[in-house]
UniProtKB/TrEMBL annotation:
The keyword Transmembrane helix does not apply. GO terms for molecular function: oxidoreductase activity. Keywords: Oxidoreductase. It comes from Eudyptes chrysocome (Western rockhopper penguin). InterPro entries: NAD(P)-bd_dom_sf, SDR_fam. The lineage of its organism: Eukaryota, Metazoa, Chordata, Craniata, Vertebrata. This is Retinol dehydrogenase 11. It holds the Pfam family adh_short. Belongs to the short-chain dehydrogenases/reductases (SDR) family.
Length: 112
C-alpha cells in the first residue's frame, strides 16, 4: 500500500518487470493483480519478504539472484514506526531490523 504500491504501479506502467516484495501473500497478490489490470503488464510478480527477518532477506536475495538475469532498480520501502518494543526471533529489535538491518543486508546481497 502507499508509496510502495505507487512506485510499483509507475514501474509497471513503464513496462518494467516489477517484483513486489511483501510480507503478506494475500495482500501482496491483490496488489499484483490490481497493478496488472491497471497497466496491462503481466510481468508484475510477488515474492515474499519480511525485512525484520534476516533469514527471510537471505532467502529472498538468493531467489532473486537465481531467478533474475539482472536487477536495475531496488526500492527499499519497508518501514515500521510507533510499535511497542519487540525482539525478533533472531534477537534483534524489530523496528531496527525492519527499517535498517534488513534493507541494508538485502542491498548488499543483491549487489553481487
Amino acid at each position: 500500500a502507499g508509496i510502495g504500491k505507487c512506485v510499483a504501479l509507475d514501474l509497471a506502467r513503464r513496462n518494467a518487470r516489477t517484483i513486489l516484495a511483501c510480507r503478506s501473500r494475500e495482500r501482496g497478490q491483490a496488489v499484483v493483480e490490481a497493478i496488472r489490470v491497471a497497466t496491462g503488464n503481466p510481468a508484475v510478480l510477488l515474492r515474499l519478504l519480511d525485512t525484520s527477518s534476516l533469514a527471510s532477506v537471505r532467502a529472498f536475495a538468493q531467489a532473486v539472484l537465481r531467478e533474475e538475469k539482472r536487477l536495475d532498480v531496488l526500492v527499499n520501502n519497508a518501514g515500521l514506526t510507533g510499535l511497542p518494543f519487540a525482539i525478533t526471533p533472531e534477537g534483534l529489535e524489530q523496528t531496527f531490523a525492519t527499517n535498517y538491518l534488513g534493507p541494508f543486508l538485502l542491498t548488499n546481497l543483491l549487489l553481487g
